[in-house]
Amino acid sequence: MIDPIDTEAPDDSGSVTLRRYEYQVHVAVQAVLEMLAGGPVKHVTCEHIEDIVVARTGDHRCADGGLFWDFQQIKTKDAVEPWTLADVISKGPIKSLWRTHTTVKGVGLAYQLTAGVEGHLDPADAPAVALSRGQGGENPACRSRLAKHLKVAEEDLVDFLPLVRIRPLPRRGDIELRNTRVLADLGPELTMSMIDALYTELLRRTREAMQGKSIVRWTELLAVDSPPDALLAKRIAAAAVADVRQRLTRPDHVLLEDVSQLLHGPETALVRKLREGAASQEVIEEAQRLRAHADRHRFREQAIGAWPGDQAIETDLDERLLLLARRTGRTHKAQPQPADAIFDELQRTLEINPGIYDRHPLYAQDGVLLMGRACAISDECRFGWGSTRDAS
Q1: What contacts 264, CB < 8 A, 6 or more positions away?
Q2: I need a surface site. Which of 43, 86, 119, 232 has the fewest CB within 10 A?
Q3: Cα 360 vs. chain centroid, distance in angstroms?
């Protein structure tokens, strides 16, 4: 019997659209998490003027102490190559932000125009980097290309370009992990299954706000005295997630800047895997230091010609470390914080018997250096540090 699932669809754009829509939901939830953490986010408005509008308090650009508005246009792409200015232009967020600018510039708001892009920027693309820093007007190539793209004169962009930012965002495979990790930090007493349930609820409420389905009437305003119910339904304020916040007990050591860094900062595969295993911040920082220390040792040995030219020697060491790390991971995968348990036992084993693994030796049979090399292997995505989902 022929199954139509085996037949190539003439148009599969619906699936792509849904994936991009879901990604936008996760990005909006990032701002909601900042609000839950007690940060400056006042409220988040979905699918009004732009994809996401985040209103914050306490921004230095608001002389009167009012709200600062971040109008965000979110764009994704399947390719993993870094974004260039040409990529950003082709996806269309600049035209959307230009329309927003012409719409709101006369109503007295303090605001920013953000093109949120999935992935990272090409550091060699000077116009894109300049635009990401709000310096697009200072880069002649950027100014010229955007004027041509928008079909306006360069002098028309004088007030527009300083307001524009390009913000790299975590990729689809990472953003949910980051968000749930932040939620877990905010509710350290909750099991991971409870954290997952809370995150699912936040996603549901955000989707409803994006569709204008929320039934709660928010009292916060969007620069107008009497916003219509259709607009109020698109807003997520503190009242909308008060019950979620009651489930969370934020410890004093979780700083707001740490939450922001978790949500928005660059993250290596090593850190991502450690977070998936519920690693403490202390272990994450120690792993990063050890990895850097081992790398410095390797580069120094190579510079003086002491590093062996036979690749098989290094491969032998890495395979031994990999086998040990995976065996240790299996032993502790049921722990509530498997990453910490795996890290500690792996480090103890390497300090006790370094010669078993570093036979030649490459890392001076030093347990500290070997632990750093193990972290480097993890950063190459060759082993993980457990998963709290398995534990719960």
Answers
A1: 30, 167, 169
A2: 86
A3: 40
**DSSP character at residue 121:** B
What token pair was written down for 90?
């082709």
Which portions of the chain are predicted below pLDDT 50?
A: 1-14, 214-225, 251-257, 391-392
Q: What residue has token string 């914050």?
A: 56
Tokens 């706000």 sit at which residue?
A: 209
pLDDT digits (tens, 9 = 90+) for 338-365: 999 999 999 999 999 999 999 988 999 9
Please report the DSSP string for 5-35 in residue order.
Answer: GGSPPS--HHHHHHHHHHHHHHHHHHHHHHH
Query: For 83, which DSSP code?
Result: B
**361: cis peptide before it, omega within 30°?**
yes
| Residue of 96, 240, 127, 254 lying closest to 187 (CA atoms) | 254
pLDDT in tens, 243-289: 777 777 554 444 444 566 667 666 677 888 898 888 888 898 899 88
Question: CB atoms < 10 A from the CB of 164, how many?
Answer: 24
Structure tokens given for 381: 């995505």
Let me know: does 357 contact 324? Beta carbons within 8 Å: yes
